[in-house]
Prior knowledge:
Blueprint: E1 2-6, H1 13-24, E2 27-30, H2 31-44, H3 52-61, E3 64-69, E4 72-77, E5 80-81, H4 89-99, H5 102-115, E6 121-125, H6 128-132, E7 138-143, H7 146-157, H8 172-191, E8 204-207, H9 213-227
Helix pairs in contact: 1-9, 2-4, 2-5, 3-5, 4-8, 7-8
The structure holds cytidine-5'-monophosphate.
Family: Belongs to the cytidylate kinase family. Type 1 subfamily.
Binding site for ATP: 7-15
Region (Disordered): 153-173
Amino acid sequence: MIVAIDGPAGSGKSTVARAMAAREGLTYLDTGAMYRAVTDAALTRGIDVADAQAVSELAHAIDIVLDNGADGPTVTVDGQDRTRAIRTPEVDANVSAVAAVPAVREAMVALQRKAAESADVVAEGRDIGTVVFPAAEVKVFLSADASARARRRAVQRHGGDTATDANATANAEEQAKIEAELIARDKADSTRETAPLKPAEDAVRIDSTDLTVDEVCDAISELIAGAR
Ligand code: C5P
């Protein structure tokens, strides 16, 4: 069983995919974490993210391990814990350039397919339903208004959670800045040549703007029940 969840930045994919993994006994696969890990490694080593050759050599050379521990998912690169390091604004700003390099994608897609060889997975990303697992039993394209996505991110940055506190508000200026960044990243991701962000033709579209996490998960559980 493969459940594919694609969608733009901040649409709630991670929250929903993790909840679905727990609900349905699936292995959570955060493919964005892999592109982030390559980006973080490039930045740490002083490799120019615009140098496609150097970045793709790096992507093939490093050992990225995603682990779903009891305390949440972790990311290690060559044995070093980079779980937090891959979520910095600097990585946010550079990851789309790295993810646009075809040879980087080749290496990451191979890792993603390997992870699904021996497990039932719920994978989140941009090209899961279109490229990585085109035969996935369940495909969801999860979206939300840009302002809702920015609000969730802004609240998260200060340790809040809009899933448990629906009325949580963010600093307006910070939210506007995050919204502009999300829109720029979505534009880069959806206009690149290789595996752009777009819904698979057979994906079910869910707009989470006015839905709770549980409501989104209920809809996906129904799709899984139908596919089983
Ligand atoms: O999902 P997340 O925001 O962590 O993804 C970070 C970046 O990784 C995306 O903006 C995109 O450039 C890239 N990505 C991708 N394909 C995927 C997952 C993520 O290109 N399947």
